[in-house]
Specification:
It is a single chain. A three-stranded antiparallel beta sheet has the order 1-2-3, with no helix packed on it. A two-stranded antiparallel sheet has the order 4-5. Helix 10 (240-253) crosses helix 13 (275-291). It has helices spanning 3-16, 22-40, 52-62, 69-88, 115-123, 128-140, 144-148, 178-195, 218-229, 240-253, 258-265, 270-273, 275-291, and strands spanning 155-156, 161-165, 171-175, 196-197, 200-201. It contains 13 helices and five strands. It folds into two domains: 3-99, DNA polymerase, domain 1; 115-291, Intergrase catalytic core (hpI Integrase, Chain A).
């Protein structure tokens, strides 16, 4: 089978059977197009022609791009899962996927805000829409992609909860605190202004809108967060994910159960959530060394 046909079948499999998010599918698609394009330049056209040596040479070729550890792990996942798919379906019988050694996962540095920094961030925002976005991020711990996909019918202000759709199209309920509820109500009262333009009224059910009345993109949301985070804390790179990390870290500091945080974050595996336990142990040790009179 030709590369293009095999890739098309695999993308359909990810979309309709694995129910992966559009962002994840796009990442896999880009990774695999680059890999298969690399092989085509070397004269290969069919899936059954792929050999272990092709993958080894390609992985060595990737060293030229100086990818970070997390990106390399994602790319390896793209290649391995694709190879498993074509092997399972009989498009390649060389069992290449069984001979790939994944890179070890390095310890990630999580950037998150202190309680004081969080309060200063919220106080600095004057725009009603931007305030609602960042307040909702911190109140719910939602991913940026989940926030962008919220529709008006997903919101239950009376019970202060919102339905979000996470990875694998899995839905969960997240909760809105008082500050986020107030910010959301103020924005919703003004939201209709985004729907009117010189061309008339535009129908859009997504909660957060751009100036043209369309759905606000994840890139735009990221830019909004970075705009207000500039100068907030020296040496910290604050992103939308930093606010998600802050939500989890602050919940844990205030006594929330790790299982509850797992549910709120939409983590499938508890080990993903446990990183916040380690983060808080480090903070406690740092504070001990800083403030205990006999620790200096």
């Amino acid at each position: 089978m030709e590369f293009e046909k095999g890739l098309k079948k695999y993308i359909a499999f990810l979309k309709y059977q694995k129910n992966l998010s559009p962002n994840t599918i796009d990442s896999y698609n880009r990774d695999l197009k680059h890999f298969l394009g690399h092989l085509k330049k070397r004269g290969k056209e069919e899936l059954e022609e792929i050999e272990s040596s092709d993958l080894r040479k390609y992985i060595k070729f990737l060293d030229n791009f100086k990818y970070c550890n997390s990106t390399l792990i994602r790319k390896y996942s793209s290649y391995v899962n694709f190879l498993k798919f074509i092997e399972k379906n009989g498009y390649n019988n060389k069992n290449i996927s069984q001979h790939i050694l994944r890179p070890k996962k390095s310890q990630r540095f999580f950037s998150f805000l202190s309680l004081d920094e969080t309060a200063r961030l919220m106080d600095s925002i004057k725009d009603e829409r931007d305030s609602a976005i960042i307040e909702l991020m911190y109140s719910t711990g939602a991913r940026i992609s989940e926030l962008a996909e919220i529709k008006m019918e997903d919101i239950d202000l009376e019970n202060r909860q919102i339905k979000v759709t996470g990875k694998g199209n899995k839905q969960r309920m997240v909760f809105i605190n008082n500050s986020a509820s107030d910010a959301l109500e103020r924005y919703i009262s003004l939201r209709k202004d985004y729907l009117y333009s010189d061309r008339g009224y535009k129908k859009c059910r997504y909660l957060f809108l751009n100036k043209k009345g369309g759905k606000l993109s994840t890139r735009s949301i990221s830019s909004i967060v970075k705009k207000y985070a500039v100068g907030l804390s020296a040496g910290k790179k604050i992103t939308p994910h930093s606010i998600r990390h802050s939500f989890a870290s602050h919940m844990l500091q205030q006594g929330a159960n790790i299982r509850e945080i797992q549910e709120l974050l939409g983590h499938e595996n508890i080990s993903t959530t446990q990183i916040y336990t380690h983060l808080n142990i480090k903070k406690i040790k740092h504070d001990y060394n800083k403030y205990h009179p006999r620790a200096k």
